[in-house]
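Quick one, probably user error.
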């Protein structure tokens, strides 16, 4: 067990290192640089050369990559190439805001997804199951910007129940984001609930049709006890990885939602940094999201292993 955890940790570290190299190479392959964005029409001649020297862009790519990784290992994220501000300060507030948005969406969506998934499985092929499944499929297929626009139109413009956009500054206290954050939370929770709900429903149905559940039924085990003690623990295991992927998506894939609602999170900062050619910030955000993705999936794998005795036995035999 310990050897497996150590191998997973080493694999995670190697993955993050490879991702950092890919991110740096992808950013280097982009046309232009921060100096061309800053100088715009004056980006030529000596002014362009002086700007690149000042920002260190005239150094070889391998040297800049080494300096970047060395700074990351020391906890120094460097300076923004657009304004020379510390990247840690720029990204820190936005990361906290994205975590707030994702945490609220999880708090709303997870109980709803598991509850509806269980109910739909227990009422399989009945009107309630058809309604829940159809709604989930619609939520999965409709693009987020469409559902966001519709909710803004109905709940904000027509009914006036909730604010349509977020007007709070990025460094504001988290309590000031309410109730402006409610609409983006609802949109994210809709998509997240749909994906997890479908997984929970499918797993529940598969376990309900298994031999050991049929045997428990024949032995006269009460229905409630069968569901809570036998079906749910086995059915929820596949949902762990889906939840992990959903959390990773909430952290790194909310660019559209944050842009639509003017929410000051990592997604909107990424769009701004790309438009300003602030490649140092783009690199840092991409690496943070990739690292969180690797960590979340590592935790999900370990939780699945800890919750499944058969997997633990197979791992023990292989090691």
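Nope, works fine. Designed sequence:
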């Amino acid at each position: 067990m310990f050897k497996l955890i150590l191998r997973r940790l080493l694999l995670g570290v190697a993955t993050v290192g490879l991702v950092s190299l890919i991110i740096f190479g992808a950013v280097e392959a982009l046309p232009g640089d921060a100096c061309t964005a800053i100088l715009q029409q004056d980006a030529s001649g000596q002014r362009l050369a002086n700007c690149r020297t000042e920002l260190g862009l005239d150094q070889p790519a391998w040297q800049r990559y080494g300096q970047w990784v060395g700074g990351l290992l020391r906890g120094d994220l460097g300076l923004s190439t657009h304004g020379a501000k510390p990247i840690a300060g720029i990204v820190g507030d936005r990361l906290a805001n994205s975590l707030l948005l994702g945490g609220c969406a999880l708090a709303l969506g997870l109980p709803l997804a598991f509850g509806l998934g269980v109910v739909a499985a227990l009422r399989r092929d009945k009107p309630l199951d058809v309604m829940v499944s159809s709604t989930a499929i619609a939520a999965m297929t409709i693009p987020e910007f469409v559902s966001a626009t519709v909710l803004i139109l109905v709940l904000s413009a027509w009914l006036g129940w909730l604010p349509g956009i977020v007007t709070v500054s990025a460094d504001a206290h988290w309590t000031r984001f309410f109730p402006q954050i409610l609409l983006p939370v609802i949109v994210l929770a809709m998509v997240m609930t749909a994906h997890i709900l479908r997984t929970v429903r499918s797993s529940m149905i598969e376990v309900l049709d298994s031999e050991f559940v049929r045997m428990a039924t024949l032995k006269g085990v009460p229905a409630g006890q069968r569901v809570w003690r036998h079906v749910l623990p086995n059915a929820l295991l596949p949902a762990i990885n889906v939840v992990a992927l959903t959390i990773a998506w909430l952290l790194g894939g909310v660019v559209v939602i944050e842009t639509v609602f003017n929410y000051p999170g990592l997604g909107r900062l990424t769009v701004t940094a790309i438009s300003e050619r602030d490649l140092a910030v783009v690199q840092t955000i991409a690496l943070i999201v990739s690292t969180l993705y690797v960590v979340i999936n590592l935790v999900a794998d370990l939780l699945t292993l800890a919750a499944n005795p058969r997997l633990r036995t197979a791992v023990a035999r292989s090691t």
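The chain has 15 helices and no strands.
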